[in-house]
Design a protein that fits this description.
Blueprint lengths: L5 E10 L2 E11 L4 E5 L6 H8 L7 E6 L2 E2 L5 H6 L3 E4 L11 H6 L16 H14 L15 H13 L5 E5 L7 H16 L3 E5 L3 H7 L2 E6 L2 E7 L5 H9 L17 E10 L3 E9 L3 E6 L5 H8 L7 E6 L2 E2 L5 H6 L2 E4 L3 H5 L6 H6 L3 H5 L6 H14 L16 H13 L5 E5 L7 H16 L3 E5 L3 H7 L2 E6 L2 E7 L5 H8 L8
Parallel strand pairs: 3-8, 3-9, 6-7, 7-8, 13-18, 13-19, 16-17, 17-18
Antiparallel strand pairs: 1-2, 1-4, 4-5, 9-10, 11-12, 11-14, 14-15, 19-20
The structure holds adenosine-5'-triphosphate and magnesium ion.
The site of magnesium ion has 6 residues, from helix 1.
């Protein structure tokens, strides 16, 4: 009998307070697309980091082509074993251009022997070729920091393709991608598979798993629950294996009553980005903002809270015209944005859960004359409990939490303010199915308490499942508005692709 390409034998990994992996054994064949699923904190990324040599297992062994991997480290995994990871957190350098990022650490030299001069021309040409293969119109000379999150993810993928890989590991690559980009990615994955490359793919989007995977493995609390052919497992089965129970209602919408106007945006313009945007948001209502990745939704949110300057337009909060000049200004008027980009805008990774959850809110506590530490702690405990943040304790550094749990801390940080208008930008990105329901319940609670919610999301089921009203943005303009009762996936997609005129 031939041995599998990759063998993971009895691997365990312990961090202070958690057993991240508990005696996991798994075999993956050459040219297979193997999907890993599991709740936030189940151990998926840890397993990946062991394969890439970033972490060392406390017990167990890894074999590639029957040979035991010894003294693994990221350089060795990449160069000797051809294991190429694309991590959940983007790892590009903003201040370098696309080409420099692609070839960082494996530059093409003019003279390979002396290795002194870089062959920039060759690298640019190769970058162009790889981006072309991915059908991406990205300038090889653009600074990575100037690209949107979706494009940056595409650059990460291009980087992986620039290295000769035996095993490519994609840790939630589609979280930040638009539909068309996902189609391209899947096309490339199938192509790589046909070339004999093995792929491990992690995702919380279970429909995707069914579409792209050959086999899947479910992890729960660090333990392997099941490995099976994807075709033999329904999505409901996956959920049951992941969370250990059935989830009956994935979108628990509640009845609320639209009350007073909370936010009015009039004729907002930002050159080249936003055109004449006008809309209202009301207390007691969830207003969904749909659109394709790159349509300008995040830019709109940032413009409203004073994160980026606008060219013209007015913003009214509770009926009063306000010049919102900075996010702090916005917060002072009870308006907050929960960003989609947790790493750059949401969190202090070297600080604790406690610190991150209470930082946005110190002013609220200061009103109590002395910082009331006990009260801060109680509120944070409450939120962390509600959001089911998986952390050993409140003093754990946020950087040590799993990706989805970091996202939950971002949410807790902004919930823990006196805000009355919340803009959620892709609130459930990277969050597992069970925890999504918790986030929706928290949104429900907020609107029940008369807050106004504006929810930007690329997930149509989420938009349709939770919004009372929906506006659609295409190319910086509003191209559709629908009431909950009239909205359908088709209508929204049509407006999102610019196929429908907006009658005002
Ligand atoms: N460097 C670290 N130090 C301490 N604990 C860690 C570290 N890395 C991971 N953990 C813990 O190990 C557990 C597994 O985390 P891991 O990142 O593997 O989860 P995951 O399955 O990738 O989750 P997600 O879907 O949220 O990304 C979590 O409880 C996490 O807090
Ligand atoms: Mg992870």
């Amino acid at each position: 009998m031939s041995t599998s390409f990759l063998q993971i034998k009895n691997v365990s990994k312990i961090f202070p307070g958690v057993k991240a992996l508990d005696n996991v054994s798994l075999e993956i064949e050459k040219g297979e697309i193997h999907v890993l699923v599991g709740e936030n904190g189940a151990g998926k990324s840890t397993l990946i980091k062991i394969l890439t040599g970033l972490y060392h297992p406390d017990a167990g062994e890894i074999y590639i082509n029957g040979r035991k991997v010894e003294d693994n480290n990221p350089q060795k995994a990449l160069k000797k074993l051809g294991i190429v990871p694309i991590y959940q957190e983007l790892n590009l350098i903003s201040l370098l251009d696309v080409t420099e990022n692609l070839f960082l650490g494996h530059e093409i030299k003019k003279d390979q022997r002396t290795g002194i001069f870089l062959n920039r021309k060759a690298m640019i040409a190769k970058t162009q070729e790889i981006l072309g293969k991915l059908n991406q119109k990205i300038d090889p000379l653009a600074l990575v920091g100037s690209l949107g999150v979706g494009k940056q993810q595409m650059v990460e993928i291009a980087k992986a393709l620039s290295i000769h890989a035996n095993l490519i590991i994609l840790d939630e690559p589609t979280a930040a991608l638009g539909n068309e980009e996902i189609v391209e990615l899947f096309r490339i994955m199938r192509q790589l598979k046909n070339e004999g490359v093995t792929i491990i793919f992690i995702s919380h989007k279970l429909e995707e798993v069914a579409e792209i995977g050959d086999r899947l493995t479910v992890l729960r609390d660090g333990k392997l629950v099941i490995t099976e052919d994807v075709s033999k497992v329904s999505i409901d089965d996956m959920i049951r294996h992941m969370v250990g129970r059935e989830i009956v209602n994935k979108f628990p919408k509640i009845e609320t009553h639209r009350a007073a106007e909370a936010l009015r945006v009039e004729n907002l313009n930002q050159a080249g980005v936003l055109q004449n945007i006008s809309f209202h948001a009301y207390q007691g209502e969830i207003l969904g903002i749909a659109g394709l990745v790159g349509a300008g939704r995040t830019e709109l949110a940032r413009a409203i809270i004073g994160g980026d300057p606008i060219d013209s337009g007015d913003i009214y909060i509770q009926g009063e015209k306000i010049a919102v000049k900075s996010p702090q200004d916005a917060l002072n008027h009870g308006l907050v944005l929960l960003t989609e980009d947790r790493k750059n805008q949401g969190l202090f990774l070297d600080e604790t859960v406690m610190f991150n959850s209470s930082i946005a809110n110190l002013k609220k506590y200061k009103k109590l004359i002395l910082l009331n530490l006990k009260r801060i702690k109680e509120e944070v405990i409450n939120l962390v409990h509600h959001l089911k943040v998986k952390t050993p304790d409140l003093n754990t550094k946020v950087g040590q939490l799993s990706g989805g749990n970091q996202q939950k801390v971002v949410i807790s940080k902004w919930l823990n303010t006196n805000a009355k208008i919340f803009i959620f930008d892709e609130p459930t990105r990277g969050i597992d199915v069970g925890a999504k329901v918790e986030v929706y319940n928290i949104m429900n609670q907020l609107v029940r308490d008369n807050a106004a919610i504006i929810m930007i999301s690329s997930e149509l089921p989420e938009i349709l499942g939770l919004s009372d009203r929906i506006i659609v943005i295409h190319d910086g303009k509003i191209t559709g508005e629908f009431n909950r009762a009239d909205a359908t996936q088709e209508k929204i997609m049509k407006a999102a692709t610019g196929g429908m005129e907006y009658a005002s």
